[in-house]
């Protein structure tokens, strides 16, 4: 037997004390009349314009200097002999081709190990217990009624609002930032010499044939051992003959 608890909602009322406000004094604003002064027109004195002194310009004769002639150098062309360099012959090395024999790495036979039988473990059946369902009775608590006290409304006097101090925002002068132009020294660009990569001729490697081991099927129980050995020997001979033909074709080309 297993106990299972099921939650359910229940309303619970709590008695809270209520503060009853007391009466207090309030200022009553009464309107009253205010006297306003009526503006009366009055005379305004207008200033009269008075005479003032002004400078007067009078023309005067002035002597201006006259330009006089002066001597100037005049260039006269004349013949000049310039020496001319004549190129002379010089010796140069001449490259003569020479026949050379290049050694070529040819394939060589490599011993390949023969296949041998290997034991293979096979899976076998094992009994596994299967789960089965079991019925269990779980007791459930049923809800029941609980007596609850109901709240009773009570008349309450609401107090009138009293005057209280309030913070008034006062404008304050804020100094705003301003921009000033400043000359910043900047380095001028200058030439920089870089080393460029130089292409160097490299000898290309000569291709050669590499023998690859041949996979062998391991069906020892279903097939005979002699048939598999014959197949492996035939593939070995084929792999040995292939590189010879490829070398002849490359040599003829």
Can you give a write-up of this model?
The chain is low in regular secondary structure. 11% of the residues lie in helices and 0% in strands. It contains 1 helix and no strands. It has one helix at 225-252. It comes from Cyphomyrmex costatus. Residues 232-253 are annotated as: Disordered. This is Neurofilament heavy polypeptide.
- By DSSP, the count of extended strands is 0
Whole-number average pLDDT?
78
The low-confidence parts are: 243-253
CA gyration radius, whole angstroms: 61 Å
Q: Which geometry do the CA atoms define?
A: flat
Q: What string gives the helices and strands in order?
A: H
Fraction in beta strands: under 5%
Structural class: little secondary structure
CA(first)-CA(last) distance:
93 Å
What characterizes the major β-sheet? none
Helix residue percentage: 10-25%
Helix count from the secondary structure assignment: 1
């Amino acid at each position: 037997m297993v106990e299972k608890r099921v939650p359910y909602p229940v309303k619970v009322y709590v008695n809270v004390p209520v503060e009853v406000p007391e009466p207090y004094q309030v200022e009553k604003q009464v309107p009253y009349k205010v006297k306003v002064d009526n503006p009366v027109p009055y005379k305004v004195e207008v200033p009269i314009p008075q005479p003032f002194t002004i400078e007067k310009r009078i023309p005067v004769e002035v002597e201006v200097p006259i330009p006089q002639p002066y001597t100037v150098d005049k260039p006269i062309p004349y013949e000049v002999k310039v020496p001319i360099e004549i190129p002379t012959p010089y010796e140069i090395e001449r490259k003569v081709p020479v026949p050379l024999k290049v050694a070529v790495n040819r394939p060589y036979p490599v011993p390949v190990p023969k296949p041998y039988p290997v034991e293979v473990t096979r899976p076998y059946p094992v009994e596994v217990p299967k789960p089965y369902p079991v019925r269990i009775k779980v007791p459930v608590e049923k809800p029941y009624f609980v007596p609850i006290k109901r709240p009773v409304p009570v008349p309450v006097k609401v107090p009138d609002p009293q005057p209280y101090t309030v913070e008034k925002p006062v404008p304050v002068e804020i100094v705003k930032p301003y921009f000033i132009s400043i000359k910043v020294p900047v380095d001028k660009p200058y030439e920089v010499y870089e080393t460029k990569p130089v292409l160097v001729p490299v000898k290309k490697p000569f291709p050669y044939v590499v023998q690859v081991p041949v996979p062998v099927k391991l069906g020892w129980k279903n097939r005979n051992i002699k048939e598999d050995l014959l197949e492996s020997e035939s593939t070995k001979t084929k792999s040995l003959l292939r590189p010879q033909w490829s070398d002849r074709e490359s040599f003829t080309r």
